TrEMBL record:
Residues the entry annotates as binding molybdate: S69, I179
Family according to the record: Belongs to the bacterial solute-binding protein ModA family.
Keywords on record: Metal-binding, Molybdenum, Signal
Protein name: Molybdate ABC transporter, periplasmic binding protein
Record text on subunit structure and interactions: The complex is composed of two ATP-binding proteins (ModC), two transmembrane proteins (ModB) and a solute-binding protein (ModA).
SUPFAM superfamilies from the UniProt entry: Periplasmic binding protein-like II
Lineage: Bacteria, Pseudomonadati, Nitrospirota, Nitrospiria, Nitrospirales
GO biological process, any: molybdate ion transport
Entry-linked PANTHER family: MOLYBDATE-BINDING PERIPLASMIC PROTEIN, TUNGSTATE_MOLYBDATE_CHROMATE-BINDING PROTEIN MODA
Molecular function (Gene Ontology), one example: molybdate ion binding
Pfam families: SBP_bac_11
Length: 264
């Protein structure tokens, strides 16, 4: 009798162990994937919201690295272990594609960005003057992203040249490592005004602190933004899921809410 009871106990224990293994394995399929995404800093607020929604719907975890598109491009060329790369300039992922460093067919033009002239509410600047406000002698520092490796910085310079302003204000420019740092310079008061991404101006923290004037799109090259899955990624299926999520209704709504134009 004791042997029989012992056998039943062992059988039940084995069944329970197998059930737990299956349960853990099933959970692993859902939760084990951690996507590492290199994203242009104009996506800072939009992607934090978007990543949260993706995590809830997919079970995957997203690790965001935010910075300048040019710097990420160099890092990826040198073997940086990212799964996805979201650039503010589609030219960078195209070059990676040409170099054979991306998953074939994964290049996606996900948005077109916009720039604005932004100043804090404490400023006496008349933002209705638009770009012409930069001529004000009271302005000592103007924040923009570094045009050497930040597409938004290049767009700012192009627009200032369009309005015949660049030569007059170039000595007053303060260059941020990326567009988020440029926004921080002006938000903190270190600079009186800045040319930043519309997506950052629409973020709750900045929207409450200042006012902006939207720079006409025709005054600078289009900020076509592109994404790509990197060939070195060990999580290609999850990376493709993230791309599909951005293309879906929830992803599109979030991007539009932060001022991005969605390409047809």
């Amino acid at each position: 009798m004791n042997h029989r009871r012992c056998g039943i106990f062992v059988t039940r224990l084995t069944t329970l162990a197998l059930f737990l293994i299956v349960l853990v394995s099933s959970a692993g399929v859902t939760l084990a994937e951690e996507l590492t995404i290199a994203a242009a800093s104009d996506l800072s607020f939009a992607f934090k919201e978007l990543a949260g929604e993706f995590e809830k719907s997919s079970g995957h975890h997203v690790k965001l690295s935010l910075g300048s598109s040019g710097n990420f491009y160099s890092q990826i060329q040198n073997g940086a272990p990212f799964d996805l790369y979201f650039s503010a300039d589609i030219g960078y992922p195209r070059k990676l594609e040409e170099a054979g460093l991306t998953v074939p067919g994964s290049l996606y033009r996900y948005a077109i960005g916009r720039i604005v002239v932004w100043a804090g509410h404490g400023s006496r600047l008349d933002m209705t003057k638009g770009m012409e406000v930069l001529r004000e002698s009271s302005i000592k520092k103007i924040a923009i992203a570094n045009p050497k490796h930040a597409p938004y910085g290049r767009a700012a310079v192009s627009s200032m040249e369009h309005f015949n302003l660049y030569q007059q204000v170039k000595d007053r420019l303060v260059l941020g490592e990326n567009i988020s740092q440029a926004a921080q310079f002006v938000e903190s008061g270190a600079c009186e005004v800045g040319i930043i991404a519309l997506s950052l101006a629409l973020a709750p923290t900045m929207k409450a602190k200042g006012a902006y004037w939207e720079v006409p799109a025709e005054t600078h090259p289009a900020l076509e933004q592109g994404a790509v899955i990197l060939k070195s990624s060990q999580r290609r299926e999850a990376a493709q899921e993230f791309l599909e999520f951005i293309k879906g209704q929830t992803g599109q709504e979030i991007m539009k809410r932060y001022g991005f134009t969605i390409p047809a």
